[in-house]
Amino acid sequence: MGKSYILHMFTPAKNLSPFDVNMALDAGWISAIPYLNVEVDEIEGLVQDAIFSRGPSGVKRTGIFLGGRDMKMAMDMLAIAKKSMLPPFAVAVFADPSGAFTTAAGMVAAVERQLKQVHNTTLEGKTILALGGTGPVGSAAALLSAKAGANVYIIGRQKEKAERIAALINTEYGSGQTGIKGEADANKGELMKNTDIVFSTAAAGIEMLSAELVASAPQLKVAADVNAVPPSGIAGLAPDHDGNPIGGSKSGAVGVGALAIGNVKYQTQRRLLEVMLLSEKPVYLAFEDAFETARNYVKDQL
Fold it and tell me: Do 53 and 190 fall into the same domain?
């Protein structure tokens, strides 16, 4: 009898996401084992416990998933996990804190599709506001968009925090390709005068962009909202919108709602979990892999 496919799921949180467990099992992993309240300095020991117990053939049926709610912590854990491998004892690792990397990838890829189909343009040179962008989804979406050539603002209630997170992303993950800025939510009205794209990534049930601000934006092209809980994060945008005109927009903006984003996110996470499962060599997956996968999925649907 062959060895089982085991996915060790590490999270610094007190609970593991049921969504991630369901995704893992549906992707073909036989067992999804939770490890809760994991500290960064525990990763090396946990990884080496996982790899040395299965032998060179067993590690091909072993994987590690990194959850939590913090982008930097997940990326730090991924880096430590990778350094902890001792070939041929090495396994695949996938970082997706709170599903943020796959959600952000799904949102940006879905917006790219609408830019192309409706406005015949790309992310390059566009101005983007990531509302509620200090969280993991907004931060990841800001990073992916900036790497694609957009001018991105992370918008938060506190300008200092938004600036701090923007600087962290630029320094740690920007590779010299990003110039993300931080701004206060109180200033978004002025920023909307030159904004092409809006991402609403705040907590569910909070309106981040009013009908007045939508109507006042002279060059708004696409707005996306990751939350399905009413009220909408963006006035005039419904969860099932996928290129639908946004009511009240005077610039011809279209919306991408939570259901359209969620479909791309779901397919992206499933495909990456399958890559881990089927790869003959260990892979180390994070936000860039999620974006490439989401873009490929969207392209396949055209």
Answer: no
